[in-house]
Structure formats: C-alpha cells, structure tokens
Specification:
alpha+beta, 99 residues, 20% strand, two-stranded parallel ribbon
C-alpha cells in the first residue's frame, strides 16, 4: 500500500526487513506503478529483484562512479563482482525469488 499517488516514487531499500511474500507484493505494486507511467526509482541491494522487475539499473560504485543501462546488460556477474568487490558464483536452481 502506498499512502500517496505521486508521479515519482523515490524509495530507499523498500524491501528491507520484508519476508519473501511481502517483497513480491511490494515489487508487483511498484512494477504496476511503473507500467501505469509513474517514475519509480528504488535503491535495491538484491540483484535478483532488480533483474526481474526493473527495466534499467544504475550501479553506484565507490568514489562517485556510476554505470547506467538496461538491467539485462548491467546485472552481469562481472559487473556485480566489480560492484560488490567479491567473487560471485551462479546459484543455479538453488536460488529462489518469490513470484
């Protein structure tokens, strides 16, 4: 539920402290707003949600550097390893997101 019906939503970690079911509900609500022509900008720390629901991604690195592009181009293993400064391995079938 959103308390205001604004044209622009600026959200800082809207999924923080939510269980999986409520994360899915929140992302569906935000995706619906975006589909209705609203601007939705959200800081997300879960690349899986961003890949599934966001058309574009901005990766914010240290020292003020940023990269912007389509989520499918930005949320790659190489880009995420550079962003998080650690090695990542594909989780395969053991990785789950709520639908």
């Amino acid at each position: 539920m959103l308390l205001q019906d604004t044209d622009i939503l600026l959200l800082d970690e809207p999924l923080q402290h939510l269980d999986l079911r409520h994360q899915a509900q929140a992302m569906r609500l935000l995706a619906g707003r975006a589909s209705a022509g609203r601007a939705v900008l959200a800081a997300l720390h879960e690349p899986g949600h961003a890949a599934r629901h966001c058309g574009f991604a901005v990766l914010l690195y240290d020292a003020g550097r940023a990269s912007l592009g389509r989520s499918s181009d930005m949320l790659t293993q190489a880009n995420l390893e550079a962003l998080y400064q650690c090695r990542l391995e594909p989780a395969g079938a053991q990785s789950f997101l709520p639908s």
